[in-house]
Specification:
Blueprint (H helix, E strand, L loop, with lengths): L20 H25 L3 H33 L1
Helix pairs in contact: 1-2
């Protein structure tokens, strides 16, 4: 029999079971953006251009906020510059 080697504690990784707060909020913002896009499509079908534009702006803002959350403190500058 060959004895099994156990990795030192520094190299062992614990499976990530929970998302962080920022990632959860980014997921929520993505769901808000999807719903706003659906509402915009429904407004276009109803010939309500004002509501459609508002919903598209809401979707765009939610996606931008989600990307800022995912970028974290170090990546915000590059996102805002683009």
């Amino acid at each position: 029999m060959v004895p099994e080697k156990i990795a030192p504690a520094a190299t062992r990784r614990r499976p990530r079971t929970r998302m962080g707060r920022n990632e959860r909020m980014a997921e929520r913002l993505d769901r808000i953006a999807l719903q706003a896009e659906r509402d915009a499509a429904a407004a276009v079908m109803a010939h309500d251009d004002v509501t459609a534009r508002d919903m598209l702006e809401r979707a765009q803002a939610a996606r931008k906020a989600a990307s800022l959350l995912r970028a974290g403190p170090s990546g915000v500058r590059e996102l805002l510059a683009s």
